[in-house]
Amino acid sequence: MARSARRITLVTGSVIMAATVVAGCGSGAASGSDKRLGDRGPCDLVTPAELEDLVGARYGSGEAEGPQCSFSPVETLGSPHVTIGAGISLTADTANVELSDTEVRGIAATAMRTKPRGTSCMVEVALVPSDEAQTFNADVGGVTDGAPCRLAERVAGHILDTLPG
């Protein structure tokens, strides 16, 4: 399996994760989906109003940052920060995260939760395991109730529900 060596830095609230783009990574499950990203970029996958319903905080417009879109909460105190990625697969330094296999709407996914406090979690979904361009992720950080992966899975599930296919 070919690997690319490009480095990306994710900033999620006060958590900084160094991530390496690795082609073809994920939960290792062979399952996929008939859903596709199409020509939708990361800022097109969810709206601030949808995030408010999903996460429970108000958000401004998303800011594109390469293959990612960053949504900052309007009221920053105690509100999670959300980043959506499209067309990239991210695998983080395992010394700083806990990796676990999960499912979103029956599709294999990988959850990456920061250690030791666990206030950030990214859930990555590979719609077509062999095609990195058909991968998206939802990263929710600054969660104070201890359940960042629950929120990231909720956002990822909503994105899946809105994709064509």
What attributes does this structure have?
165 residues; mainly beta; Protein Transport Mog1p, Chain A; seven-stranded antiparallel β-sheet; three-stranded antiparallel β-sheet; 2 helices; 36% strand; globular; disordered N terminus; DUF3558; DUF3558 domain-containing protein; signal
SSE layout:
Blueprint: E1 7-12, E2 15-21, H1 48-55, E3 63-65, E4 68-71, E5 81-86, E6 90-92, E7 97-104, E8 107-114, E9 120-126, E10 135-141, H2 148-162
Antiparallel strand pairs: 1-2, 2-6, 3-4, 4-5, 5-10, 7-8, 8-9, 9-10
| CATH class placement | Alpha Beta
CA radius of gyration is: 14 Å
Oligomer: single chain
Number of domain units: 1
- The neighbouring-strand order within the major sheet is 3-4-5-10-9-8-7
Pick out the low-confidence regions: 1-30
User: What proportion of the residues is helical, as a percent range?
Assistant: 10-25%
Looking at the structure, the CATH topology is Protein Transport Mog1p, Chain A
The coarse silhouette is globular
Mean pLDDT: 79
Query: What sequence of helices (H) and strands (E) makes up the elements?
Result: EEHEEEEEEEEH
Largest sheet: number of strands, sense, barrel closure = 7 strands, antiparallel
Number of helices: 2
Percent strand equals 35-45%
Could you give the distance between the termini? 27 Å
CATH architecture: 3-Layer(aba) Sandwich
What's the number of extended β-strand segments? 10
Structural class, please? mainly beta
Keywords: Signal
Protein name: DUF3558 domain-containing protein
InterPro entries: DUF3558
Organism: Prauserella halophila
